[in-house]
């Protein structure tokens, strides 16, 4: 799903750029074709976004009268410790959801691309991609049992003589957030690897052969050929994983509900919780808008590493 | 994929501009005051062919069976009425009821949770119809104990709890108390505790014998309310805690509340609670208790059926009292209130339904299906020595002595979040009892303004 969307967006974006140079006459008929899609967009996305922006300027419990508070809800994103922490936690999530899987996938890609033909490659690809296909609630429930005091993680630690560090991983203030982050790493690595391997497949084999003939080692080959060639894929992988990190809700909702204390609260979870359980609709809307802006900014920055001529 | 930063700015600016124009009409209705409600009657047949929509949270085994039975009986008695039942789990009801009540086709009867976060907000928004007139008509004011009616009472603006108008009646009763393993206690020569002091003595003895005193799991965050609530009730007494939760008087930084927190910290330090409790689920803790791995566990009477099946005759239930007292004081209350919405077009039918599912006849149905009704039938006497007998007698005792303390999360709209997180911090040693109290008081002060 996600892959398909991205692939569609890239050519689309570059077409717009090409056309804007020519400045054609406005063809009003053309807008008719866009109309159905635009109506759907406006009703299900446009209006709610505007409404959310409106709510964010009020203090409102969702029922009674509301009070105009201006930008106070946005100021609270920086001053309210709980909200500020949730955004900081999102930063930690980005590390686990993006940096870790992209790095690991690059290493794996380097290794795999050296091997000329790996037997059963498609099987490995499918297996690694599987976490992306499994429903996130199933993923979270499985990991709850892995992280539980008598779970797989602790069993393994005891088996290798590390019984002293076993704990309830999701119940400990210091380990709960990284524990959830690692689930994200596990989720993302297959996606990144599949992306990168398909990118490597597009690199002309002659380049590698030439490099090898010139005596380049594995490292040289990787940094000289593979990495530059994968810029586009890396940008896509980063975009997808960073967005996934920032909008993480399901894992936290199922595993810890933001606990212990507030050590795993994330912006998306805060937005939900404030809107639906604690009756702070205005604040929830401000968190949602703040999060959306953050995602837009970060993805815009990531686009900078995208090479100009991907087609 | 943002290619045109300028366009983005323009779009954002446009959105803000639209938002600003919209800000002229603020979201939410201005509070509607409930006007005169007209004469009321018990006549249901005269309403003609009608259907009423009912939202309940009776999804669990026994209570679901009871509700289906009651609905069928009601439709049989009044063939002109059709009941459209919408049944949601507590959590789902809590998150969706607000939207349902404010929608154009709101339900007629809903189960509303007590306290400021839910019922207070609904009443303040003019979404519920006061039922004082029906209370007199059907005699609810005489049938239900006052302290239980009070829990469903609010001032018309939703700002003062337990005073003003009645907004509903409840079907079931519930208290949080101490389940104990009779076998473990007798093997150690201990008697079931009566006061919080006795309890601590027993805890020490059980620990000394190498058995886990209290099975406790708090990964879901809500059991923390019960653990702290039971201790606080026994330390501070029912009056002080009632006034605190009702936002009448007192502060969370009062000595008794801090003392209760200190007791919990001591329990953690001495190893009385399951280690790493923040990572243990409620069900796992209960399972450990039922497997005989712990002498006690603290939870509500809603687990009666489960514990009976799991531990059988070895299980007992009790409510603790303050030191030197013979009457119990504990967290508890009643099931969600059956309330009537202001949107209902058939208030007489709705009232008849509310009465039908909560009156003495309904009580018998509830008892038969393994539930604890608000007012148990006078002749209800479960077999002596069973867990059901303990639950029945403790419920009667707590009611007789007005020893009920409401759930602490009723205190403010955000208190559930604040309290559950704070208890996790307290039991993990991340916050001192004083810091714990200060955290709670900050939330409380922001809501009550004192």
UniProtKB/TrEMBL annotation, chain A:
Pfam families reported for this sequence: BPD_transp_1
Origin: domain of life: Bacteria
CDD domains with a match to the protein in the record: TM_PBP2
Keyword Nucleus in annotation: no
Coiled-coil residues: none
Record membrane topology: Multi-pass membrane protein
Transmembrane feature ranges: 30-50, 87-111, 123-146, 179-201, 222-246, 281-302
Keyword annotations from UniProtKB, A to Z: Cell membrane, Membrane, Transmembrane, Transmembrane helix, Transport
Similarity comment: family membership: Belongs to the binding-protein-dependent transport system permease family.
Name of the protein described by the UniProt record: Sugar ABC transporter permease
Organism (species): Lacisediminihabitans profunda
Taxonomic classification: Bacteria, Bacillati, Actinomycetota, Actinomycetes, Micrococcales
Automatic annotation (TrEMBL), chain B:
InterPro entries named among the record's database cross-references: SBP (IPR006059)
GO MF entry, a single one: maltose binding
Keyword entries, A-Z: Signal, Transport
SUPFAM superfamilies attached to this UniProt entry: Periplasmic binding protein-like II (SSF53850)
Domain of life: Bacteria
Pfam name, any one: SBP_bac_1
Any one Gene Ontology cellular component term annotated for this protein: ATP-binding cassette (ABC) transporter complex, substrate-binding subunit-containing
GO BP, sorted A to Z: maltodextrin transmembrane transport; maltose transport
Family: Belongs to the bacterial solute-binding protein 1 family.
Protein name: Extracellular solute-binding protein
Phylogenetic placement of the source organism: Bacteria, Bacillati, Actinomycetota, Actinomycetes, Micrococcales
């Amino acid at each position: 799903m996600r892959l398909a969307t991205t692939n569609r967006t890239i050519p689309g974006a570059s077409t717009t750029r090409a056309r804007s140079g020519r400045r054609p006459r406005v063809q009003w008929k053309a807008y008719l074709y866009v109309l159905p899609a635009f109506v759907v967009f406006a009703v299900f996305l446009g209006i709610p976004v505007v409404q959310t922006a409106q709510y964010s300027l009020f203090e409102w419990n969702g029922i009674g009268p509301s009070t105009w508070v201006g930008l106070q809800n946005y100021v609270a994103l920086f001053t309210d410790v709980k909200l500020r922490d949730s955004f900081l936690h999102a930063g930690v999530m980005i590390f686990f959801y993006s940096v870790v899987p992209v790095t690991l996938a690059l290493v794996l890609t380097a290794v795999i691309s050296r091997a000329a033909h790996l037997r059963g490659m498609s099987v490995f690809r499918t297996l690694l991609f599987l976490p992306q296909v499994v429903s996130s609630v199933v993923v979270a429930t499985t990991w709850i049992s892995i992280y539980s005091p008598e779970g797989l993680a602790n069993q393994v630690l005891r088996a290798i003589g590390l019984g002293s560090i076993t704990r309830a991983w999701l119940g400990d203030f210091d380990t709960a957030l990284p524990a959830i982050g690692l689930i994200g790493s596990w989720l993302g690595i297959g996606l990144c690897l599949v992306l990168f391997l398909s990118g490597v497949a597009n690199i002309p084999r002659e380049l590698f052969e030439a490099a090898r003939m010139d005596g380049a080692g594995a490292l040289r080959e990787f940094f000289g050929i593979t990495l530059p060639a994968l810029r586009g894929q890396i940008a896509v992988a980063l975009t997808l994983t960073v967005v996934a990190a920032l909008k993480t809700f399901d894992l936290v909702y199922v595993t810890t509900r933001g606990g212990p204390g507030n050590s795993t609260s994330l912006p998306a979870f805060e937005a939900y919780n404030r809107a639906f359980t604690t009756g702070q609709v205005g604040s929830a809307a401000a968190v949602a808008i703040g999060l959306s802006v953050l995602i837009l900014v970060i993805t815009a920055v990531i686009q900078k590493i995208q090479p100009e001529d991907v087609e | 994929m943002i290619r045109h930063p300028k366009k983005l700015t323009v779009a954002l600016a446009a959105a803000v501009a639209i938002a600003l124009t919209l800000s002229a009409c603020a979201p939410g209705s201005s509070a509607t005051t409930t006007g005169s409600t007209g004469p009321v009657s018990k006549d249901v047949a005269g309403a003609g062919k009608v259907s009423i929509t009912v939202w309940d949270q009776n999804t669990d085994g026994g209570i679901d069976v009871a509700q289906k039975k009651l609905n069928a009986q009601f439709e049989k008695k009044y063939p002109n009425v059709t009941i459209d039942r919408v049944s949601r789990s507590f959590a789902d009801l809590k998150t969706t009821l607000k939207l349902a009540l404010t929608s154009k086709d709101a339900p007629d009867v809903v189960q509303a949770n007590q306290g400021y976060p839910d019922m207070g907000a609904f009443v303040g928004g003019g979404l519920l119809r006061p039922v004082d007139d029906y209370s007199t008509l059907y005699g609810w004011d005489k049938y239900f104990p006052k302290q239980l009616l009070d829990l469903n009472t609010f001032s018309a603006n939703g700002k003062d709890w337990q005073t003003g108008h009645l907004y509903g009646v409840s079907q079931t009763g519930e208290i949080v108390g101490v389940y104990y393993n009779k076998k473990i206690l007798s093997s150690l020569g201990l008697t079931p505790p009566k006061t919080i002091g006795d309890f601590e003595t027993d805890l020490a003895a059980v620990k000394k014998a190498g058995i886990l005193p209290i099975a406790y799991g708090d990964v879901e965050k809500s059991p923390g309310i019960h653990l702290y609530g039971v201790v606080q009730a026994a330390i501070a007494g029912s009056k002080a805690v009632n006034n605190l939760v009702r936002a009448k008087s007192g502060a969370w930084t009062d000595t008794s509340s801090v003392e209760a927190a200190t007791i919990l910290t001591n329990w953690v330090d001495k190893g009385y609670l399951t280690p790493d409790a923040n990572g243990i689920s409620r069900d796992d803790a209960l399972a450990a208790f039922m497997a005989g791995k712990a002498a006690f566990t603290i939870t509500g009477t809603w687990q009666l059926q489960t514990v009976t099946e799991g531990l059988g005759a070895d299980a007992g239930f009790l409510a603790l009292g303050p030191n030197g007292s013979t009457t119990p004081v504990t967290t508890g209350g009643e099931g969600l209130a059956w309330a009537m919405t202001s949107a209902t077009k058939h208030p007489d039918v709705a009232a008849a339904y509310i009465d039908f599912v909560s009156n003495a006849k309904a009580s018998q149905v509830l008892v038969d299906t393994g539930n604890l009704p608000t007012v148990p039938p006078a002749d209800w006497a479960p077999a002596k020595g069973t867990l059901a007998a303990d639950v029945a007698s403790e419920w009667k005792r707590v009611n007789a002595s007005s020893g009920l303390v409401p759930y602490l999360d009723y205190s403010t709209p955000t208190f559930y979040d604040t309290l559950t997180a704070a208890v996790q911090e307290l039991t993990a040693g991340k916050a001192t009892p004083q810091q714990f109290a200060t955290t709670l008081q900050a939330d409380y002060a922001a809501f009550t303004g004192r």
